[in-house]
Structures are given as structure tokens and as C-alpha cells.
Recover the amino acids of this structure.
DNA sequence: TTTTATTGATTGGTATCCAATCTTGTGGTT
DNA sequence: AACCACAAGATTGGATACCAATCAATAAAA
């Protein structure tokens, strides 16, 4: 096993991408130290890792918070993600063999089943994983890590924006990417990737006031003492529109 | 100022990309703690940052070493760098205005002067910075950071390989990228970027035995007490194939 | 010479303490 | 009531001392 701080950083990362720890949430050293039954120093090391990953921000003498990217940064993250996936697509266009295409199709099929059986949570996860699988097929670990980090940050962003997904649409995009790629039609693939991500971003309105729906203690409870594997609790989504929202905007469905 | 550990991580990073700390070099906590007159904890935090950046690797109960990427990883890093710069080129092809092109040309001109005046060290730095400037023009901070990290890692790789640069050739590449980009000829630009990086990698033979030419104490001396700004000592390149540490094996973190 | 055991050094981590800074609550002033 | 100043408390960043586990390197034994 690697270090304790790495393990804790992993758990915190998990909690953040599960939307159990929302942007802006204070990550107090003492509190986390008590939760994980570990000294403050180990916590601080974990927080440094999170900050390096862009998932937390540490303010001197104020402590660490779950990152709250600006709209600008959100755009940049999606732009970067698009750039990376387009580049990978260009590489795969030449190099991907039949086995790779089969793997991609199989994944899409699994997600399709999840959608049709109404398992939205699973469909969401599989939708994310398609992108990860896509990059993994490039067989470039460095690229994989960069991409994974960007994906984590987009997942964090989804805590900040209010919208539901139109899984079918995104799923169709995945299917089309595979088909086009197999035909060697690179240009439409790259445009599709662009619009795919843009469709996720467009229409999303950032809700700058995010209230901590769970305290860190509540959020982290399911991950403790090794239950992490079997208890990937999805996000308990509380309906927006209570006291603070200023009653402005509500969810926007991605255009079909 | 940010935290002490960040400052130390920055100095170590500097020392590594200056080739004063070479791959495989042991980064002992106690030793560094004495050098920087700081507690071991701060050092460990700095080392965590370095490891997250891919510049160091931490082995449990063995300590931290300057990273020694494998040939495979070296290829992946260059592939990733190519992918990123190609993507940025595609973006700039549409979005870059006259001011941007002027900035690029001015930079190339500066490097040309450095080359013709025989200042190889400066030319080397400027050659690197061209790529940084290129990405900065995309105005995407996230992408910039990813790219900067990749560049640092390639710089680290250059400690492992034995070859000198043909500055003129690389300089011409930069010039041609600008010209082609201005004409909107994206495809040749992307091929040029590819061959540009490939020309750096190809022919390079990884010298797996890298002897620490400087002890950490010697390597870090110039960066201490704020002299960092004005003393960017270049790498003291000692010809390979000597008795090195005089038999007194400064551990080299032997592979296998 | 090879193998084994012991010793020493280094790391990962805890507990405790301290200074600097931030936050908060209080009280006085307008 | 609103507002500012200021003291008290809490939190962070860091130092020091200490301990257990593990790795490395030697010394001893076969």
C-alpha cells in the first residue's frame, strides 16, 4: 500500500466526484484528522495532493476548501478536455485495431442497457467511463493521467451547475464517434467531440452559491474502514430552490 | 507568499530542470531538511508535490529520488506533448491575431540572435520558452499548466539522454510553424510539430547509468537565500564515462 | 565464497507545543 | 439601529521530539 495520505486523498477525491463534498466546502484539518483517526499532518499532505490535482484550493492561514472553479476555468477545463480527446481520436484513427473497436462498442452497449433499464446512476458512470476507455486505448499512461485529472475536474464542475443529462443524446454521440472513427472520417469525429462537450457546457448556469448539503463527517462516513469498494453511494441530490438560490435559474436539458 | 513547502518544491524543480539534480539522485529528507534549515515535514510535503508533478518518485520506506522515466515513459511524454501542441496549433489557427504572430516572431528573433552570438545556454532556454509562449497564446491556463508540466518532464529526460541540439534546425522549425500557421495551413503545421519532437527523441540513446555529478547540497547551494532569481546556473555538463564518485558509490538507484 | 544475522539508518507517522493569522463576538460610538 | 474597534478564541503553518517498521549494509557463520 502507498502512504496513508495518498489513501486519504483518494477517499476525498472519491467523495468529491461523488458530489458528496461540494465546491466551497471547508476541509478543516482537525475535523478530517478526527474523521480518519490520523494526525493533522497526514491530512495536510492529503490536502496538498488534492490541491495539486485541482480539486481543492488551499488559502494560506485559512485552510483548504473543495475547489470552486470560476466560469472561465470551467470553460478552460472543457476546452482542454476537448483538445485531449480530439488528439487521442486522431491517434486512434490510425492505430486502433478491431479489438479496440469491439471494446468500445461493448461499452456503449452496456450503457445502453443501463439507460433502458432506468439505472440512471450507472448510465452516468458508464458515460464518463467511455471517455476514459477511449483514452486508455491510446496506450499512453501519461495521457491517461492527464485526461483522468481533467475528467475529475469536470465531474467537480457538475456539482456547480444545475442540469440533468440527456443520456440518449450523449450515448448516440459515443456511438457515432465509433462509427466515424472506424471509417477513418477523422474530421467529423473531432467536430463531434467538440459539440459533445459543448452540449454539456452550453446552457449550464453556474450557481455560485453552493450550500454544503452534507458535513464532511456525513459525506465521508461510507468510505471509512474499507467499505469504500462496495458502497459507492451516489450523490444525494437535494432539489435546488431553497433559501439561497435567489430563485434565478433552473436546470436546462441538453438540446436533443 | 505561499507555503514554505511550495517554495522548496519550486527550488527543487528548478534544480532538476537545470540538470543540477539528475535522475536517480536520492532526495533524503534529513539532508534536505538541513540544507533548507527546515523540518523534515516541510521537506516531505515538498517531495509530495514533486512526485505529483512526475519529477520525483517516492518509494515506500525507501525515500524519494529524482524520477528516472523509462524509455517507454519518455516516448509517452513526448507523444503527449505533441498531442497538446498540435491541439493548441489547431486552436490558434483560427483564433490567433496579428499581435500574437508578432509576439511569436519577436521571440524567434531573440533566439536567433542568441544563437548567432554563440550564447548556447540562452538559446536553449529560449527554444524551450517558444513552446511555452505558443501555448500561452491559447489563453487557457489549464492547458498551460498541463503543458508546462510536460515540458518540465521532457527537460528532465534530457538529463538521461546524451546528445546536443541542432539549434538552427529547431529554430527553423519554429519559424516555419509561424509562417504556415499564418497562412492557415494547419495540416503541415501539425506534421511539423510531430517531426519536430520526433527529431528530438530520435537518435537519443538513454544512458541508464546516470551518476550524480553533484550532491544535493552542492546542487542546491546557488538557490538558497533568495539568490535564486539572479543565479540561474546552467548545468555543469561533465563528460560521461568517468570514475564519477570515486568508487564511493553515491547510490544510483539501480534498476533491477 | 555464499548465506545469514545483526546493526544502523531512514522513512512514515504520532503527539505536543508555539507563533502568526483569521474569525468572531463584544462593546462602545454615532 | 448601524458601524467601527478591539479583545478572545479558533485555525493554520510549522518545529521538535519520539517511536515503530522497514530497508541497507555490514559482520559473522557455514
Amino acid at each position: 500500500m502507498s502512504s496513508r495520505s495518498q489513501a486519504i486523498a483518494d477517499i476525498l477525491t472519491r467523495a468529491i466526484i461523488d458530489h458528496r463534498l461540494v465546491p466551497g466546502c471547508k476541509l478543516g484539518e482537525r475535523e478530517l484528522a478526527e474523521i480518519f483517526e490520523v494526525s493533522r499532518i497526514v491530512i495536510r499532505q492529503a490536502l496538498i495532493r488534492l490541491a495539486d490535482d485541482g480539486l481543492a484550493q488551499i488559502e494560506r492561514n485559512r485552510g483548504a476548501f473543495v475547489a470552486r472553479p470560476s466560469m472561465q476555468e470551467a470553460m478552460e477545463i472543457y476546452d482542454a478536455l476537448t483538445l485531449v480527446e480530439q488528439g487521442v481520436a486522431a491517434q486512434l484513427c490510425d492505430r486502433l485495431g478491431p479489438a479496440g473497436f469491439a471494446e468500445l462498442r461493448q461499452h456503449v452497449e452496456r450503457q445502453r442497457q443501463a439507460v433502458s433499464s432506468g439505472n440512471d446512476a450507472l448510465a452516468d458512470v458508464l458515460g464518463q467511463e467511455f471517455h476514459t476507455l477511449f483514452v486508455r486505448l491510446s496506450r499512453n499512461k501519461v495521457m491517461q493521467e492527464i485526461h483522468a485529472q481533467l475528467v475529475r475536474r469536470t465531474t467537480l464542475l457538475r456539482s456547480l451547475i444545475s442540469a440533468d443529462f440527456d443520456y440518449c443524446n450523449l450515448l448516440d454521440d459515443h456511438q457515432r464517434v465509433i462509427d466515424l472513427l472506424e471509417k477513418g472520417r477523422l474530421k467529423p469525429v473531432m467536430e463531434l467531440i467538440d459539440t459533445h462537450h459543448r452540449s454539456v457546457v452550453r446552457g449550464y448556469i453556474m450557481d455560485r452559491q453552493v450550500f454544503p448539503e452534507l458535513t464532511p463527517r456525513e459525506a465521508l462516513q461510507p468510505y471509512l474502514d474499507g467499505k469504500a469498494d462496495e458502497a459507492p453511494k451516489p450523490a444525494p441530490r437535494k432539489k435546488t430552490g431553497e433559501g439561497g438560490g435567489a430563485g434565478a435559474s433552473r436546470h436546462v436539458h441538453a438540446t436533443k
